[in-house]
Amino acid sequence: MTIKNKTIIVTGGTSGIGEACSKTFVARGANVVMASIQQAEGEALEAELSSTGQAKFILCDVTDEEQVKELIKNAKSTFGQIDAIHCNAGAWGKGTVEEFDDVIWNKVMGVNVKGAMLTAKYGIPALREAGGGTFLMTTSVAAQIGFPQHAVYCASKAASEALLRCLTTDYAGVVRVVGISPGTVRTPMLAASCEGWDRPVEELYAEVAEKIPVRRLGEPQDVANAAAFLLSDEASYINGTILTLDGGTFALPPW
Ligand SMILES: NC(=O)c1ccc[n+]([C@@H]2O[C@H](COP(=O)([O-])OP(=O)(O)OC[C@H]3O[C@@H](n4cnc5c(N)ncnc54)[C@H](O)[C@@H]3O)[C@@H](O)[C@H]2O)c1
Questions:
Q1: Ligand 1 geometric centre to CA of 12 (Å)
Q2: What is the pLDDT of residues 185-231, one digit of tens each?
């Protein structure tokens, strides 16, 4: 299972799932470009990973077309070509539709849908130039589950899965397009989504873990292991597929 010497861009590559992916890809010999809006974290991670491998941080807001264009250009000039893109940057926001406004739309739809579109718009031509490559998206079980007070987030993740299928069709023969749909993964985003409850986060996590058939939350490393496989040549026949990575949550009956 090898991703050795591949150049991989990871958007949102400096926190949670993306950070674990960046570290895992570098540990397995890939050249990694981490792109996010977290300058301090990005620079620190670049310094940490550069001591054992090839890593570069590029500050990039994926909702900004010029910045995404620059990201791809900069990544190409750093490592010569781009073999894979892990479109993972994500934003979360709470609320029912009655709390809906342009702020939450622009944040959540902006990053999760527009950001993914722009990453594909500029990233796919670079993959084509390299002779084909893999476009991996982090979606979510929120595409299928109506989580309470997650209207915009759930809609955004359903949109990202629809986009994944369209990319698979439009770039058939050029780019392999795959997804990972995580369930509940212990990251800063999950912690933020648990704020405001009447119990400590760890207590909430323990309660959720009991409801997951593997009896634990997902860890960022679980996603990184699956991502490294999906980006490897051994996964070359996996295309248009979204891997559900939820510890068996979807298998549970509702009682
Ligand atoms: N944690 C979970 O339980 C869970 C479950 C399913 C799917 N996901 C998805 O996994 C992905 C990673 O989330 P996470 O849980 O690691 O969260 P996180 O908050 O730890 O990381 C999100 C990353 O996205 C980056 N980001 C946010 N806005 C950005 C922007 N405008 N431009 C560029 N980068 C931006 C952040 O800087 C950060 O690096 C997201 O797409 C999220 O929706 C998470």
A1: 6
A2: 999 999 999 988 888 999 999 999 999 999 999 999 999 999 999 99
- Asked whether 219 and 245 are in contact (CB, 8 A), the reply is no
Of the residues 122, 153, 171, 237, only one is catalytic, namely: 153
Count up the domains in the chain and report the number: 2
DSSP letters spanning 56-87: EEEE--TT-HHHHHHHHHHHHHHHS---EEEE
- Establish whether residue 62 lines the binding site of ligand 1, counting it when its CB lies within 6 angstroms of any ligand atom: yes
Residues 41 and 121 placed together within one structural domain of the fold: yes
Residue 98 domain boundaries: 7-183+219-244
Q: Whose CA is nearest to atom 32 of ligand 1?
A: 61
Atom of ligand 1 nearest to the CA of 139: 7
Q: Cα–Cα distances in Å, from 107 out to 114, 232, 245, 253?
A: 10, 32, 25, 34
Rounded Cα distance between 252 and 255, Å, is 8
Counting atoms of ligand 1 from 1, which one is nearest the CA of 157?
43
